[in-house]
Every structure is written in C-alpha cells, then in structure tokens.
Write the structure tokens for this entry.
Amino acid sequence: MNFRCSSAPLADLGCDGLAIGLFSSTWEQQLAGLLGPRASEVQALLEQRQFKGKPREQVTLTLPGEGAKLLLVAGLGEPEHFDTQGLRQAAARLAQASRGWYLNSLGLALPLEAFAPDQALGALVQGSQLALFQDLRFRSEVEPSGDPKEICLQGIAESLQEQLPQQQAICAGVELARELVAAPPNVVNSLSLEATARSLADEFGCELTVLDEAACRERNMGAYLAVAQGASIPPRFLHLVIRPNGVVRRRLVLIGKGLTFDSGGYNLKVGSSQIELMKFDMGGCGAVLGAARTLAQLKPEGLEIHIISATTENMISGEAIHPGAIVTASNGKTIEINNTDAEGRLTLADALVYACGLEPDAIVDLATLTGACVVALGSEIAGYWSPDDTLAAQLNAAAQRAGEGLWRMPLQASYKEGLKSGIADMKNTGPRPGGSITAALFLQEFVNAEIPWAHMDIAGTVWSEKGRAQDPAGATGYGVRTLVEWCLAIAAEQKEGLSQ
Ligand code: BES
Ligand code: MN
Ligand code: ZN
C-alpha cells in the first residue's frame, strides 16, 4: 500500500473515497468541520440510517455530485474512551470497508488530537495496511479485490512522511511472520526456514550461522535432537545476527520456537487437540524472523540483535524418541521425557543455553508452548514470565504501544515440585493444573540467572479463528510489533543515557 501524509483539509486531498470516524457526542459538528458545504446533506443521510456514532457502527454512503464518490463512516463512541487501540481499529475497519471500491485514493480522517504524531502515524499505517493483508499464495485463481491504490492520511504533517519507511518495515515484518505461520507443513520446514533466514541475511547484510545435526551433536544439544530424531527432514539451528552501523552498546537475543509441525510424537495429538493446525507451532520462529525483517532494515543504533530458532518437526517414526526416554541437554542437565508432546521446551532448552553463551544483556523467547496458556488467556492475550521486573516492565510497555495483548504470569517456584523425576534431574512435563507455569519454570532451568530473561507463550495469539478488526482470520503475526517496539525502546534509552 502507498501512503501519503497531508495536513490539508479532507476535501482538498483529491481523493475519490473518504473515510472518517465520528464520536457519538459531537458527530454533527465533526462532520461540518470535515465536509464543509457537503456536511448537511451527509448529516441527513446518516440520520436516515439512524447513525449514532457508537463504537463499531459503520455506514457506507455513495455521494452524488462533485468530489469524492464514496464516504465511509465509522462510529468511535465517546472521546474519553478513544485510545490508540481504538484508533488502530478504526483505521482497520475503514480500510476493510474501502475494499472492493477500486478507489484511486482513500482519504482517511480520524480525530488525532489526543495522540502524539508518531503514535498516530503508527496506528493508522499499521491498522489499515495489516487489515488489508491477504494471503493468496495457495489459490489457483485470484479475483482482484479492489483495494484502494493509495491511502492519504489526513491530519498527519507532511514532515512525518519520512517515518513511513519505518512503518512499512514494521508491516513487512508482520506480513512475513503471517506468511511463514500460515504456510502448511509441507511448504515451511526447517530447510525452508533456513532459506528464509538466508535471504534476509543476503538482503540486509546480516550474518547467518546454521548448525546442522552434526554441529548440534557436537554442542551436546541432546534435548533439541531428541525432538528432531523422528523427523525425516533434517533439523536446522538458525542464528542470525543484526549488527548496528556504529558501536555495539546492547546485545539482545530473540528466540522463537520453531516446530514446523507438532504431531505430538508418540504422545500423538488425538481428539480435539487440533493436530491439523499444528503448522502454527513455528509461530515463535515466524515472529522472530518477522522482527528480524524489520530490525535488519532499521538497524537500531547501538543494538546487536541475535535471532535464534532451533527448527524441526515433532513426528513419529521408528527413529522417534520414546516416551520415557532420558536425554541430556547442552548444559549437562538430564531430562526424563514423560511426554513427547511437550517438545517445544526441549528445543528451547538448548536454544536458551546457546543464547546464554553469547553473554547478552537480555533474552526474550516466544513460543506456542502450552494449551494451558490458551485456556488461561484466550486468543487476544499472550502470557509472559520473567524473574526480572525491569525487563517485564519494558515488555509490558512495548506491547501496549504495539497494540498487542500481553499479561504477566507468575514464576511460582513451588510448582517446580511438579517437574521432579524419580530417575533424572527433571521431567519435561508436570501436572495439568498450572501447565503454562511449569513450562516456564522448565525453561528457567536452562537460563543463566544473571541474564535478564523473559518467556512469552503465544499459543493463543498466534492464530485467530474468526479474525479481528486489525487481523484477518488465520495467522496474526503476533509478537513482531512488540519485539520491534521493545528493541527500539532499548536503542532510544541507551542513546538518551549517552547524551546525559
Ligand atoms: N504446541 C503445543 C502447544 C499448543 C497447544 C499450542 C494448542 C497451541 C494450541 C505444545 O507442543 C504442546 O503440545 N503442549 C502440551 C504440553 C503438555 C503435554 C504438558 C499441551 O499444551 O497440551
Ligand atoms: Mn507438543
Ligand atoms: Zn508444540
């Protein structure tokens, strides 16, 4: 999508379609301000339709005479409750309503007074662009969708035009994550993810290290390889490094669970466990590669960013790991695999040990780790765990700015009891109650306590069955925006620290 910023009045933008948002209390006055002489005519049409300006109300009007031929109106509710999330969703709804009208230019005018200009720009660009995202790769016939050729952001100063590439980079990252997650398991596998990482490295000049099975064995990654041994596609441990143009002040690691298919292994997924959806079990990998797509383009000052994913699939075969097997992770800890379906934490264990070896300033991992997290928080909120209050606060703020739901969960130390094994250092699964917490506690066993670390369970948010205003149904690309916001905030913070 092409975007243009303009502080000129809506009627002067030369758009053939207009999209506006109106508050319930003041909509008549707003209309007069936006449409001038055409306002009274439009007001009559809206009254005819019983328009009240309530949240989620939406009206489409075709206009006779000179100027724009289409007017899309979204109700915004009361101004007191209109926040960035409301702005993002209004942009998304209006963009979706413009589909099918083959507009040359859609003039988008929403009340921006309450927002900082860069915040408003982000909400408008991301909201509209990501709402119009379509994945047509797997259709043999494609009908044109009639999207506008351009969206003109009314009320955004022309000087902010220079921030559009950054916003486009964020959208491109989310779209990459969506495409990776939505692609089926016979298309996206460990080898294709390696190819994706390779093309990012080539395009943006990053360094890529790939460990094959032998290299992982040399590093004693017994937990990861135990999961991989049932697959006929070879495992690939991916490590991409984004370096800043100048000096390095912070080293950050982003780890994504990269199970391109999770059958459960010998603890096979049966009944209502949605085995056919388990292509999304590389959603963590998709999110970190999506974030890499954005961050490699932006190259935030002072940050060295490491992207890691231990990719494989969890399959059954004569080679596959037995339930009850005991394996040794790369930090020497022994694990009794009492459930082969708790495979993600096994792959993450070795990825976390590897990440700690890089001596970073912080590690964040993202994983579609537990059904228990879906039960706890549903599909709009991911859970996160961190022993570090500073990192936790940073992630919370980043998710807030990104408009992604994120809620801190407890690392209840006493629940470690549930992971006790009668024969090895630990089991890989505890009891069902608190299952997402024991999963996080399991991961913590593989993190050096001195390194700030957070774990995000994105099992619920990776996929949207029905779709939401800003998300078409299917893969959401969840996590990319929060990770990017977090990295940009760290970059800004250390820069500020220097100037003081
Ligand atoms: N990938 C699944 C988690 C999952 C389940 C994600 C449903 C999205 C929707 C993970 O590998 C898994 O199977 N977890 C088990 C853990 C259990 C065996 C302790 C689960 O949640 O059932
Ligand atoms: Mn599983
Ligand atoms: Zn899994």
In short: The chain has a mean pLDDT of 97. The longest strand covers residues 303-314.
